[in-house]
Amino acid sequence: MMGLTHAAISAAAVSIAITSADPWVLGIAALSSQIPDLDTTDSTAGKILYPVAAWIEKRYTHRTVTHCINATFLLAIAALPLWYYFGNWHLWAAVPLGHFFSAVADCFTKEGVCIFYPSPVRWVSAMNPNKRLRVGSTPEYWVLATAIAALLISYNIQTAGGLTLQLNQVLGNKDSVEQVLNKDGSTHLIYIDVTGTRTSDRTRVKSRFFLVEQLGGNFLIQDQTGLYQTGKEIIVSSLKATASNNASTQIQPLTFNDEEPAAVLESLAAAHPGSAIYLSGSLQIDAPEELIITPTPGQFQSISSSGELIKLQYHPIELAAGQLLNQFATGQLTAKIIYPAPRL
Predict the structure, then answer these.
(1) N or C: which end of the chain has fewer CB within 10 A?
(2) pLDDT-based confidence at 128, cuts 50/70/90?
(3) Where are the beta strands (DSSP E) in 118-217?
(4) pLDDT score of 172
(5) 31 or 128: whose pLDDT is higher?
(6) Do both 199 and 283 map to the same domain?
(7) Residues 37 and 98 in one domain
(8) Inside any domain, residue 68
């Protein structure tokens, strides 16, 4: 079997077996697939490492000592430093698995493989030698094409979050949103395509929202009209999350000790131009009678008051700065700063 075929088979099989699309992992698997053919100087690996291949070729029959399970176990031990130094077991696993799948693939060739060497029994895929693969034959090129196709499909699935995520996306359930949020929420803007019904007037919703935060088993989402919580303001029938532009998220605590919060909030907004800032926490203000809060029916209430105490939950900073103007406050807030601001 050609070295290229071995590389494609091992890379595809390793990608599927350990659900990885890491180029380093796939590259190591492809390189490890060449190790079995170090028992002959006619192979590509044997020509590159000629002294090693020549030494093995003089002492062992082709497809014996380098193609067996014992060799796979030895490689697993030899590759342990990859796991230790890089902290990535996928890199380690790619070595023995890349070798193993390559050795097994040779069971489909004319000569077969002594997979349990030193046992002389050769494992073959078909009793009729004419049904086995020949190097460079048309059937081998079909195997090569199939392995490459499997590798591309696996790579696409893994880079998109894995098979489970793809299935959840098709089903449109909240698990897919959680997976995307956990995977890309700290580095990307997450948008959700929502299909459902508004609880306020029973109108249908089929639109894209920005995902602000997960609240328990629901999601706080935003469009150009305001904030909504799934499961409360919007009863959803389908959700599909998409990781969009690269973004950064910062969490900044704010402490007020009988001071004007509006000035601090305006300064914070000015320090982060082009960012979306959401405030959470509670403040005790000195003039609650001057505080104007106008709830929007059918939307998430991100600010509420009870006497001198006001509570904020992911309240947009631009609204808070205006509402707290000329107030003095004591308390703590947390600012969630997302850059760049989402397009609503």
Answers:
(1) C
(2) low
(3) 188-198, 204-215
(4) 52
(5) 31
(6) no
(7) yes
(8) yes
Q: Are residues 223 and 151 in the same domain?
A: no
State in Å, rounded, how far the first CA of the chain is from the last one: 55
Quote the CA–CA distance of 49 and 40 in Å, as a whole number: 10
Q: Are residues 209 and 257 in the same domain?
A: no
The verdict on residue 344 lying in a domain is no
- Rg, Å, the chain Cα set: 30
d(CA 65, CA 59): 10
- What is the spatial distance between Cα 55 and Cα 26, in angstroms, rounded to a whole number? 29
- pLDDT for the residue numbered 166: 55
pLDDT digits (tens, 9 = 90+) for 222-279: 999 999 999 999 998 888 888 888 999 999 999 999 999 999 999 999 999 999 999 9
Least confident of 126-130, 278-282, 284-288: 126-130
Q: Which residues in 153-168 are b (16+ Cβ under 10 Å) and which e?
A: ebbebbeebeeebeeb
Q: How many CB atoms lie within 10 A of CB 92?
A: 21
Classify residue 12: in a domain, yes or no: yes
Mean pLDDT, the chain, integer: 88
CA distances from 63 to 37, 52, 53, 69 (A): 8, 15, 12, 12
Point out which residues pair with 191 in neighbouring strands: 210, 242
Domain finish residue from 119, 144, 159: 159
Confidence of residue 340 (pLDDT cuts 50, 70, 90): very high
> Quick check: 229 and 216 in contact, CB under 8 A?
no
Domain count, the chain: 3
Q: Helix, strand, coil shares of the chain as percentages rounded to 5? A: 45, 30, 30
Last residue within a domain, chosen from 192, 213, 246: 246
The answer to whether 37 and 111 are in contact (CB under 8 A) is no
Q: For residue 308, what are the domain limits?
A: 248-339
121 with 154, same domain: the answer is yes
Length of the chain: 344
Q: Are residues 129 and 23 in the same domain?
A: yes
